[in-house]
Amino acid sequence: MLRLDLMVWLNFLHDEHVETQYGNMHCIMTGTRKANRPVILTFHDIGLNHKSCFETLFNHMDMQEITRQLPVCHVEAPGQHVGAKTLPNAYTYPSMDQLSEALPAVLSHFGIHSVIGLGVGAGAYILARFALNHPDLVDGLVLININPNSEGLMHTVANKTTCVMFHEIQTNHDLIATYRHHISVTMNQSNVSQFFRSYNNRNTLEVERPVPGGNINVRTLKCATLLVVGDNSPAVEVVVDCNAKLNPTNTTLLKMADCGGLPQVDQPAKVIEALKYFIQGMGYMSSASMTRLRSRTTSSSSFLSFDGSRSRSHTNELQHGQTHSDEKRGRTRHNTDVSMESISNSNVDQIISKSTEVAC
């Protein structure tokens, strides 16, 4: 059965260079697009590509529960794919804003009408910018290590081609060695440096938290948004800052315990659990599927609990679920803040009001 699933997956894999007004974007499309269902759109961080940034996550067996229902489109910034040639001297590397504006051409190429964005670092910033400028194309965002500010977290790193190391906890020597090797051997150093300079020169994301009774037209992310950061990551402060600037009614902040700057690599199972409940809260995963997930979760050392009645024997107060209509697609979607509960020996759930904040 596994071999058959692999053959079916390979039959629906499209590996293409999509031409945009800001250069060619290497894209990998997997799965079959379905009517009235979004596509998961990923965008990697600096020094990484779709394989090194997301392969651990998407190769995890639990991820199949999502990818069977939602196709995936991986997007790589110009010159960041494996085996990329050095970009021509005459080529001006696009800004972060321009990279976000290249995405509509990618969606048009594949016939994609809506996405759930999954981005890390620079990729998270690009997807957030895309969602601000094209809210009708984005149903949801999962943003790992997003920095909404103009001054880069990594500007003090001496070796810019290994900037991803700055994101990881220094005690994880094996992971650091793996990614240092990846960056130095498989990535084009000149192209990585150009991507880094583009990110380091980015503009601040001009978002503002709506205030009751205030201006109803403030610029903010309109879609359901999950912010993810490892509690040992240098990005914690800026991710919390980003959370403070977003709409509390549709934003959840997830801090992952015992995790550095690459949670999708370091703790893929936990990230997948969060993804499943986030997507289910948007109305895209069946209750039967989630029931099977819940039964597996309670028999392991995992961390998630989800209950439609929102009841649980925990001392923390839970925020109530929310329902809003999606007029564009003519359906009602249920956006429910995700409640996550660690049952490990060392971690306790912390849920803080305003935007829902969760520690796992």
How much helicity do the residues have?
A: 25-40%
Per CATH, the superfamily of the domain at 16-149 and 159-210 and 222-282 is Alpha/Beta hydrolase fold, catalytic domain
Number of helices, where a helix is a run of at least 4 consecutive DSSP H or I residues? 11
Summarize the main sheet.
Answer: 9 strands, mixed
Helix-strand pattern, N to C? HEEEHHEHEHEHHEHEHHHEEE
Indicate the radius of gyration in whole angstroms.
Answer: 19 Å
Mean pLDDT: 75
Strand order of the largest sheet: 1-2-4-3-5-6-7-8-11
First and last CA, distance: 34 Å
Q: Based on DSSP secondary structure assignment, what is the total number of beta strands? A: 11
CATH architecture of the domain at 16-149 and 159-210 and 222-282: 3-Layer(aba) Sandwich
CATH fold-level topology of the domain at 16-149 and 159-210 and 222-282: Rossmann fold
Structural class: alpha/beta
CATH class of the domain at 16-149 and 159-210 and 222-282: Alpha Beta
Please mark out the parts with pLDDT under 50 across 5 or more consecutive residues, or reply none: 1-11, 152-162, 164-170, 295-355
Shape, per Cα inertia axes: globular
